[in-house]
């Protein structure tokens, strides 16, 4: 029998500690919380995009890097949401601590990743040591902190005015998603072009710290003990001090990191809006090197055999009208201009800043023979794929594809069956198309996928390569430091609607590094490495890997 006078057993703790004691009216307080949700969501998305962009720039293969960063971050957000349940009873203090930590970790993440890249010899050697997982660690940490925000903000909203869960979730997510939209648009159109990745991340961390600290210390200060208020204030001031000091030193840090990556002979470093362009050497007898987004695109030590092998075999035949896709450095154009009978050269390169540098930089313009000063050369700053879609049919005798490596994700559409179909349409009867297809020895599947894709577009192909016998050759364009050491050749594919003949144009100036005998011998060696049965690469099913 139950004794009605017995004391009731202890029940569960109350699920709602009561309304918050606010210095403003509840409606104003609710608006301020939702405004903080908006700001925090914008900052969180900027952190995600900054990690994706920096990883793609430093490591390459943007699809893989975006997948790794976003999947790890979303997973961590779920774990963070679960972990934050333990902080609901101290939601204000917990949220303040999380925002200060997130501002510090997210704001400094870009500098930390770039420092590791610069001072450890590049990402290629970091897999063995495990340091490359720093990217995953930052994704995980930032995701945990972002995920912990949501339950705590929900608790703070409910502390202001109790309402049904569905309405609170709708309000919270509306502010969150709109903030994410603003952050997603601000990163590529405001932060990246105006501030750069490093300063942009630091500014984002500052905004994050100010928003979180102001909300807790201003609106919910009565929920904190005197000790908690001082600790949170000191923590936020320390975070802001670290971010401010980093912002002051960021230019010196970037110069030091750039010298660690490129050497101490950096002459030009600029962000064109399309890519980062760095020039080293070119003075006092030092060879010029051109880096695009961290990859060695042109080396004065070995660019001549590469560009001669790219251009001269394709010029064997009618060549009055020539189209160069890519090649904004002007070096392929220089080789085209050596052939008599060229009436017009159209250059289509997406980066007008690179073309402008090739015109005006003394060392680079000297290397390209002042090609852009020739009145026969006409430049269009446009994406090659989009430009080809509007090109008049049968308008070019020679089409030279001097494009970034097919293993770079952003370039895969320029090595697709659809792209080569457009190129075929632009060729006049008897016209030739030449493509550089990467190092044959180290990446044969990529090379033969290019060949298979050209054949799928209705073109007949002749593969060839230049080997280490070419004087001074060290690997061709689009190289990391490790790839430069490993490369022993560079592969090309000559294509036409009828079987092309691999030779040098009679009556043209003799190439300085290329002979008919070497070309024929290396073409035979290339053919013997064929990988049969490879499917073509298309826009919806790219087959290249970095």
UniProtKB/TrEMBL annotation:
Residues 1-20, 522-546 are annotated as: Disordered. Gene3D superfamilies: Vaccinia Virus protein VP39 (3.40.50.150). Its EC number is 2.5.1.16. It catalyses: S-adenosyl 3-(methylsulfanyl)propylamine + putrescine = S-methyl-5'-thioadenosine + spermidine + H(+). Pathway: Amine and polyamine biosynthesis; spermidine biosynthesis; spermidine from putrescine: step 1/1. Its main location: membrane. It is found in: Cell membrane. One of its GO terms (biological process) is spermidine biosynthetic process. GO terms for cellular component: plasma membrane. It is a multi-pass membrane protein. The chain crosses the membrane at residues 31-59, 65-84, 96-121, 133-157, 169-192, 198-218, 230-250. Residues 1-17 have a biased composition (Pro residues). The keyword Cell membrane applies. One of its GO terms (molecular function) is thermospermine synthase activity. The active site is at residue 402. InterPro entries: MFS_trans_sf, PABS, PABS_CS, SAM-dependent_MTases_sf, Spermi_synthase. S-methyl-5'-thioadenosine binds at residues 275, 349, 383-384. Keywords: Cell membrane, Membrane, Polyamine biosynthesis, Spermidine biosynthesis, Transferase, Transmembrane, Transmembrane helix. Spermidine binds at residues 307, 329. Homodimer or homotetramer. Belongs to the spermidine/spermine synthase family. This is Polyamine aminopropyltransferase.
